[in-house]
Inverse folding.
């Protein structure tokens, strides 16, 4: 049985939406959404302008980026997801560069998980951090090459490259007693892969009481939302920035029940 509103109810409802105040509020909401969309487009355009391609064909193909006053050349491997620079990495690099007062990397112990091509680790190193860039063993060769080429004689601290398979031999390779990271950086580590639980275990293992996670994620499938819900069970999660045109969000997280000293 369906409820059919009376003629009087329909007139009353229509009169509410025709009230000048309602129109004013709807206009303000539309204006706010338009401003946010404009801001998003401007920031995304500025981020993408940091990319450039070589003017001439070279023996080794590479893609260029401008961050922290440096020209960074990244060699990619198109046959592997982990060896491509994804937009989330650019967003995180841009954030680190433009928020140095609030998130000062100088002399901080930083680990990047799922470092891929190494772009984020390179930017963190150029900003003065002690960086450990990690990924799967098959990606370490290209990762080491990119980091060496872009940080040698340019950084305060020489970055390290280390194998890290999520959830595997964590106590052996990253013992809690000696693994004291101020920041964990992660860009686009959540997607359609079968190791999300291992990723969560890795986040939890590497975090101390005061460790700050800076995590950028592109939302593609329902798995991303489910992982965020699981993540919130262990960590306090704060959305710092959102880029709707890229379907990307930037988060800050810390372990629950602890406060930054």
């Amino acid at each position: 049985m369906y409820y059919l509103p009376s003629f009087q109810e329909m007139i009353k409802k229509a009169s509410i939406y025709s009230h000048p105040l309602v129109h004013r509020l709807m206009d303000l909401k539309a204006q706010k959404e338009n401003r946010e969309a404009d801001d998003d487009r401007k920031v995304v355009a500025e981020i993408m302008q940091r990319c450039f391609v070589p003017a001439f064909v070279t023996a080794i193909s590479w893609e260029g980026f401008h961050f922290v006053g440096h020209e960074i050349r990244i060699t990619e491997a198109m046959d592997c997801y982990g060896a491509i620079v994804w937009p989330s990495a650019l967003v995180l690099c841009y954030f680190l560069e433009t928020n140095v007062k609030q998130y000062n990397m100088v002399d901080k112990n930083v680990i990047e998980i799922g470092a891929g091509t190494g772009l984020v680790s390179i930017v963190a190193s150029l900003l003065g951090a002690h960086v450990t860039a990690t990924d799967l063993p098959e990606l370490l060769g290209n990762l080491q090459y990119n980091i060496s080429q872009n940080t040698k004689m340019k950084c305060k601290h020489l970055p390290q490259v280390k194998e890290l398979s999520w959830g595997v031999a964590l106590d052996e390779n990253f013992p809690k007693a000696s693994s004291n990271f101020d920041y964990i950086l992660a860009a686009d580590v959540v997607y359609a892969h079968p190791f999300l639980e291992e990723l969560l275990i890795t986040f939890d293992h590497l975090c101390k009481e005061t460790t700050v996670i800076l995590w950028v994620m592109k939302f593609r499938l329902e798995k991303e939302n489910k992982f965020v819900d699981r993540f919130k069970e262990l960590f306090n999660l704060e959305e710092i920035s959102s880029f709707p045109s890229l379907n990307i969000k930037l988060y800050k997280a810390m372990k629950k029940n602890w406060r930054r000293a």
